[in-house]
């Protein structure tokens, strides 16, 4: 693996586990198995530039989960509830580790790091755009699809915080049921079958994140 990619992946993991402020260049170098100088060689902006690359990398990986989790379910609402249940299981099995560095870092740096807030905005916007496109292909209208993605992401990020704080899967399961009920009430045109969906795969989103 290239050194710059190792640095980005190491930063993404550090952001996930401890946030932006607590992460130092020396710690990043050790986690990436790279000399400190190589960080500045590949990322002229130092820590902030690496964090921006890590947020983009994580964001691109996380949107892959939408088709991976929902494609197996012909009924969209059933798939949404199953996806939240899977997230609850994963969270518990990882010892309540932070599941989404993008959400956590955004909350941490939104007022203190305007450049990184702009990157977070870019990542979230990409989630909304690609998620909306996917849901349109599953039969929702463009406006309903966009609203549903916002509702899903908002419920998921909030439930992650509650679940970690309480050490309980209940917030995620409750959020999943609520969003599934909402999605089930939306009018659906004849959707494409999961095997026919081109969303995500055309953009290279057919492989699981690493």
Mean pLDDT: 90
Main beta sheet: strand number and arrangement? none
Kindly provide the radius of gyration, computed on alpha-carbon positions and rounded to a whole number of angstroms.
18 Å
The level of helicity is 55-70%
The residue ranges in which pLDDT falls below 50 over 5 or more consecutive positions are 197-210
Structural class of the secondary elements?
mainly alpha
Overview of the molecule:
The structure is a single chain. By secondary structure, this protein is mainly alpha-helical. Helix content is 69%, strand content 0%. The protein has helices at residues 3-18, 25-32, 36-42, 47-63, 65-70, 76-93, 101-109, 114-137, 142-166, 170-184. Helix 1 crosses helix 4 and helix 6 (76-93) packs antiparallel against helix 10 (170-184). The two termini are 13 Å apart. Residues 197-210 have low confidence and may be disordered.
